[in-house]
Sequence to fold (492 residues):
Amino acid sequence: MRSVGVLALQGDFAEHIATLRRLGVDAREIRTTKQLAGVGALIIPGGESTTMAKLMDMYDLREPITRFASAGNPVWGTCAGLIMLAKRLADDRPQPLGLMDIVARRNAFGRQVDSFETDLDIRGVEGGPYRAVFIRAPIVLETGPSVETLASLWDGSVVAARQDNLLATSFHPELTSDGRVHRYFVEMMASRATT
Amino acid sequence: MTTQRETGTFEVKSGLAQMLKGGVIMDVVTAEQAKIAEDAGACAVMALERVPADIRRDGGVARMSDPGMIESIMKAVTIPVMAKCRIGHFVEAQVLQAVGVDYIDESEVLTPADDNHHVWKHDFTVPFVCGARDLGEALRRIAEGAAMIRTKGEAGTGDIVEAVRHMRTVMQQIRRAQHLPDDELASFAKEIGAPLALVEQVKRLGRLPVVNFAAGGVATPADAGLMMQLGADGVFVGSGIFKSGNPAARAKAVVKAVTHYNDPAAIAEASKGLGEAMVGISARSMKPEELLASRGW
Fold:
């Protein structure tokens, strides 16, 4: 199986790598275009989306990541990563990558004091509710016709979605010991390799 | 599905610090500075009325900043906004939580309000970051509910020596804990003045149970790289940016150095043509009573 890359510009990339390694998957930090060529899937981790967008610009990573995703390689964004995957944001900054047919709202629940944990049912993730951690989290406001909603909150807010090879979650599976969402993503990469 | 949501859990509080990792948190005194910091790629800002270098120069009692000023900075940027309360001043902390800051720094840079006790941070929904000079101090703060640690260094000096000493001390003591047999952990915990349960956790994890940033004396991209290579998860820059010749360029350069801390060529590139760094004062030339780092119990 190929390695999974985790974009390591800023944020909790080390937690994604640790979770993947616990599942027996080879995981690598990605900071340059060259490093991206060596992996079969990419995770854009949680962090500060404004910071991450600036660093992507500083290091000319937008175009290579876009090409990587367009080639059909699986890409998963958690929290700030979801924001980066979106086609458009409800506010005017930062500039997302525009890969996924979703509109996202940043800090949709308010400030840090409004951050929370809750139990979620996630389509495609078996074994009971998933304890999800939301930190200054975004939500998906609109989904295009080819986007499948995988999880939503009590009020209907979409917090996990998939479009072909693209996966987006508002919450942080890398912060908990439950590796089921990472396994789901690794299976996206594995099933692509066999088709 | 349950509609139950839990706020203020330790996962949620320590989780925000995880999101800040690999980033630079900058001291700002105005909304304009906050925007410059955000544009340069800061992952958060610390809103305060005076940077540590000025607090040091002015003397007197340094207190929590005007909530109105903090709010103006919260309105100006979308990155998280932190603010400082005095050590042990739990009402300043309550005020900052009511204002809605994203993180509270219970800071030795302000004049301590309690010379025996820190804030009991478990009572708050908002997370706290606290300073530490060694593992014992870090674990005492975590026991009180801190969700993030920063090594203290010596704020407002532009001299990195104290930050290095504190980071090395924490790292050495973590390595020591890792190699001690279980039956020697209790006396090690006693020696460093830390709760045994947290020492056991450090041994198991091989690191602090929360994110650990470096602070107090970072003035250049190379300083930031040094602290990252010594094991910091990220860097606070206080006076170092807005007391320098070209704040916008220096802010961006420190951000780059933190991202590529293991790449000397990248740090070299980031360090070019930044103009003057803050003047600074040698921490070793200061009298013991002038050292802010010794505040904290």
Q: What stands out?
A: The longest strand of chain B covers residues 81-86. The beta strands of chain B are 6-7, 24-28, 44-47, 81-86, 103-107, 128-132, 148-151, 211-213, 235-237.
